[in-house]
Amino acid sequence: VDRPPKKFRANCSACDIVTLSPHKKEEKNKKSQRQKITLIEMPSPAQPANSTEAPDEETEENDQSEQILQSGSVTMTKAKHVIHCLTIVGQIEGHYILPPQNKTTKYEHVIPQLVAIEQDPSIEGLMIILNTVGGDVEAGLAIAELISGMKKPTVSLVLGGGHSIGVPLACSAKQSFIAPSATMTVHPVRMNGLVLGVPQTLSYFDRMQERIVRFVTENSQISSKDFRQLMMNTGELVMDVGTVLDGEKAVETGLIDHLGGLNEAIACLYEMIEGSSKPNEKSKTHSKAGGKKKK
Description:
Layout: H1 6-14, H2 22-41, H3 54-71, E1 73-76, E2 83-93, E3 104-106, H4 107-119, E4 125-135, H5 137-148, E5 154-162, H6 166-171, E6 175-178, E7 183-186, H7 199-218, H8 224-231, E8 243-246, H9 247-252, E9 258-259, H10 262-273, E10 282-286, E11 292-294
Parallel strand pairs: 2-3, 2-4, 4-5, 5-6, 6-9
Antiparallel strand pairs: 1-2, 7-8, 10-11
Helix pairs in contact: 4-5
């Protein structure tokens, strides 16, 4: 083959036109086919060829981690039953924002969660973990009323402490547990800030306190008389009025149903979910002492 003139070769170079022999074309085609086969046979390291569940498991773990960071709760889907774990820790924040250094549970975050749990058909039960010093009375009562009005099985577990408004929260579940080392402080209603020294203020305190007494006695086995005695005790706290109950004493007084830890609480919740806990469920009838009877 005669070589093209210099002018034609310059144009070919500028246009990137290359003339290959038939032998070289065949080698290039085989090489490209081998590359294609290699790409098909070697899967991506991020997604193994024989595993389709890994991405789903990783996504689920990320969702649970995000749920814990955002709301302090988690829905356990890989256990025997699907239950939602809700934590109420620190101080319950109500209508006023507390300082940033305080560990708080915001009631505007908890209330929508409780509504969603009650409406979600995939969630079979609710576990409430309590370690709170108390907080806003109306916010705490609002959360407690929602929990007590749920149809799904609910179990509360007091760890560390369930003080002040944490007492109604612990009693709000259908079954309540307390760890042996945990404590609960029962005391009268308090108010911070400016208080007018007039009879109307004392009357308001008395009515608010009556709301707490009524809720606790309706959702536990303690009588109104015994609960008021614990609340007005002056011989135990040095700088305050009230009573501090450890785990065993809280069960003896009827304020809490059972003494136990996480294992016992989860076992009780599973039993309620499976429908074999009818003898342990709380009824709506009251005993002569004022506390709830159990079926």
